Amino acid sequence: MSDYYYATKEETSPYKEIIMEIIERVYDDLTQKYTDFDFDYGFSGPSKENMVTYDNEGNQGFEFDVDIVLNKKYKADDTIEVFSEAFAKYKRTYQFSIYEDTDEMDLYFSNDRYRDTNDYTCSLHFIVDESTKENEKYKYILYDDDEYHCYIWVNSSNKYNHLSKEIKWLKSQKLWMELRNQFLYHSDNCEEPINSKDLFMETAHKLAVKNGIYKKPKATESKDDNKSKKEIHQFEYVTHKEAMNVRKKLDEIISELHKELKSTFTFQTRYVGSSSRNMITRDKKGNVGYDFDVDIIPNLNGKKLKPKQIRDAFRKALDNCSGKYGFSYACDSTSVITIKVVDRSNSKIKYSCDFAIVRMDDNNIKQFIRCNKEKTPHTYTWEYRGGGQDDISVKYEWIKKNNLTNDLKKLYLQRKNENYCEDKHSRSIFAESVNIICDRNGYKKRKR
After folding, report:
1. Average pLDDT for 402-419
2. Are residue 300 and residue 401 in the same domain, yes or no?
3. What's the pTM?
4. Which of 57, 74, 323, 365 is a good FRET partner for 179, with 20 to 30 A between their CA atoms?
5. What is the C-alpha to C-alpha distance for residues 195 and 160, in angstroms, rounded to an integer?
6. 170, 193, 228: which is the final residue of a domain?
């Protein structure tokens, strides 16, 4: 008898970080090796909707699903072979094994290769998007064991094609909790082994059809359910002593980066954000630790390097330097390159550092190298950040001059603990706090 429960976001996020880190590296390897090869990727099914389940009576740990969406349809057998070799390169580093199933590739992660259990599993689904404006349509890779005895491309079911539409509709009809309850029930009582994504699609489809999605489409839009979900934070300031111990490691990494990159370009560094103000925070009830922000300002010495060349060179150099200090391989996100120290035994990130590659334009306005992941293939461009930060810097200097720093730190911590919007960044909360302190203490009046 199975005994499933829902894993919390705090329990699953460190594993999801590791999975994305591996796929980022595989992406870089394959797109550099094959010039016309590209793909997008992201969590799907229960993993995407924060509905990962765990069987107390089982031995397979958490189960995640990732869709690998190829830019075009390659030969199915070749696709599986190419990806299998690419992932195999990182088996030892990340302690996982590879198993090729009939319609997916599974990565089994275990910290102990001699025990018959897995800490977590990631199922990779290889897909080609053939959708039109009128219809969603996908093909996926399946092993045909009956006729061809090889991997082939097959049309996905309507359940998959309509999944995103049905999920949005269930949320709009306030049937989300019903879906969660039914998915957990079916996970407990499923008589035959089934992939969690397939079970999720089946459950969502049946619930949507039962409640009339295709009979009575409703025009009213729902309010975002996430606004009603209040997360409890317990932010605290990281002591100066603790932060400086980590900063020493980062300074040593930066020193090695100078040596690694001297033949490509030189650069200056600047700690920015909370790490420059002694206002680094961490959530005692979270599992993402605390972070540093560093601007890398390259001096190209007359070389005409493209943004992608600069960012690739920096990331590769960072990989060569950071490992000996306990940091992970670099993870390339939209605006920064991140390294982190992960406490795997407690499933949490201890601390991390975000490196942004920046420059000042002719008007002394900051630009950064942005990875445009929404485009295929990914492009790298110099972009401007949202405005308003220069004004905040001036106001922050005024706060320091008028001995209001402690008031700011108290308000900033309070507003971080009261923030229930996941998409709201710390820099936005800091800017709000600065404006409030200035307004309370006559900044506008004095400036006039």
Report:
1. 91
2. no
3. 0.52
4. 57
5. 14
6. 228
